Amino acid sequence: MHGMNKIRVLIIDDSLLIRKMLTDILNSSSTIEVLGSAADPLIARAMIKQLNPDVLTLDIEMPHMDGLTFLRNLMRLRPTPVVMISTLTEQGAEATLKALALGAVDFIPKPKVDSNHRLDEYAEEIIAKVKIAARANVKNAENSLVKSLDFGATKSAVFARPAVDGILKRAFLKKQANSHHRIIAIGASTGGTEAVKTVARGLPADTPAVFITQHLPAAFSESFVRHIDLTTQMSAGIPQHNQPVEAGHIYLAPGDRHMMVVKDGGKYVIQLSDDLPVNRHKPAVDVLFRSIAHSAGADAIGVLLTGMGTDGASGLQEMHAAGAKTVIQDEPSSVVWGMPGAAFKLGCADYIVPLAEVANKILTLLGQGSICKPV
Questions:
Q1: Catalytic: which of 59, 106, 311, 330?
Q2: pLDDT at 167
Q3: How many C-beta atoms lie closer than 10 Å to residue 326's C-beta?
Q4: Is 189 a catalytic residue?
């Protein structure tokens, strides 16, 4: 972004109606200016050269050249922050995850033209994501880098506590500090799909159970967990309600349920909850972290990765107070340092490490030699 000027956006979408809706939404922000819109990537290519936008919104399915091919070429020839406009289908989820792997900063579902009651909420979300994308330094590394943003962490990090209390109370949690079963909890949001895969790639098959809450729509869960499973030596899946926990497994919270870990006798059990969103998210990282603070205490490791907002910060603080070791991703390797930055402000991070070193830090904290069987 140039100085204090407005964020200059180019919209690329083959639907005239979507182009008009996105233009109206983004122009409603005093800090964003839509330079124009393009119906296909060939038109867009000429407009990018002429207008030099700060951010692109990009549809995946378009005539003449699909969005992924266009994105791959763009990132090679003229790296630019991109927010993908995604369909909430299995096919759309798979394509969007590939786009994030190619370097897109974030995504948002296509606006529903027949649904005015949610348009204000949608507008707020896409404006926030374009602002985040405008700060991304996509020229500097394989992962998009972003300057830190101050999301008012200290106030909002503790705001959602009563809501989480209610969910945990319904889960009948009992704190038992005598367990010797180690578990790992990971939370992530913007930039997290690639960050989670990077961490999972470094974990051997016999690592203790890992629980991941990543902010994603429900339609994305199956695709994302397949990506994780292909990346890691561990076994990744989406758990069922009341499923017993096993070492060597990664459990991903489904995109429409909170995930908690509770104690049943001497064993951990996963519980899923359809309660209201917490910190505007379902699943919420705070719900997972606070459940593990209660059920595992010092036997847990909490990890907070890249993400917009503050979800997970107060939960990580509670894990820390319960004796868990806590790790946050550092600012330079984060796409957005909102969530880890909020935890940093609360003073509850034992270790601040680059993304590439998170898996090794987890294994070191586990005392890998004594926890895992030799390979």
A1: 311
A2: 67
A3: 23
A4: yes
pLDDT of residue 179 exceeding 60 = no
Q: Are residues 158 and 136 in the same domain?
A: no
The verdict on 115 and 164 lying in the same domain is no
The residue ranges of DSSP E strands in the chain, in sequence order, are 7-12, 32-38, 55-59, 82-86, 106-109, 136-137, 145-146, 183-188, 210-214, 235-237, 243-244, 249-252, 258-264, 267-273, 300-304, 325-329, 351-353
Catalytic residue among 189, 223, 273, 291: 189
pTM of this prediction? 0.86
**311 annotated active-site:** yes
Integer Cα distance of 163 and 42 in angstroms: 48
pLDDT tens, position by position, 112-162: 766 565 788 889 999 999 999 998 756 433 433 333 333 333 333 334 555
Rounded distance between C-alpha atoms, residue 285 and residue 164, angstroms:
10
Domain containing residue 161: 153-371
In CATH, what number is assigned to the domain containing residue 23?
A: 3.40.50.2300
Of the candidates 197, 191, 185, 108, which has an alpha carbon nearest to the alpha carbon of residue 148?
Answer: 191
